[in-house]
Amino acid sequence: MLKTKVKEATLKILTFPLGNLFLAVKLEGVKKVIPVPAIAKSGNKLLGITNFEDQEIIVVDLHQRILNASNAIASRYLIVIQSELQALYGIPVISLPEMLEVPISTIHPIPDDYRNHDTLGIADRVTQISVMDKTRTIFLLSSGSIVNFIRKEKSGY
């Protein structure tokens, strides 16, 4: 008797390094990955603005937010994501993001108490995958978490 293998449900993500961390966004929320355009920022702020397809979008400098070091000079790509409310946001990254498909059963929520007190407070889920015999921890960002972060930053201006 043949065993039928049930395919496990997966989630497609776009992952990118940030210092020694790996972050990711759901692929379905990614509008486009483009070469990084000019980003206007006033001073040493976490938020900037750029033009994408004839509209202004907010750019979130996660390097500065998480590592306290702006990556404006080193960034080569901009991940343009779309929130549930259809607003567009950009995340500058140093290297071309990698698409992965991870089993949903390996994705776990980050407890609110930890998330609210951690530098990486905008990640709401975490997964671990094996890459070349090493375990890689990937923190998943939701567009809702990014929008909430932007709102907090805007209110601090």
TrEMBL record:
Species of provenance: Tumidithrix elongata BACA0141
GO biological processes: chemotaxis; signal transduction
SUPFAM superfamilies, A to Z: CheW-like
Protein name: Chemotaxis protein CheW
Protein origin, superkingdom: Bacteria
Database matches in PROSITE patterns: CHEW
InterPro entries from the UniProt entry: CheW-like_dom_sf (IPR036061), CheW-lke_dom (IPR002545)
Domain CheW-like span(s) in chain numbering: 10-152
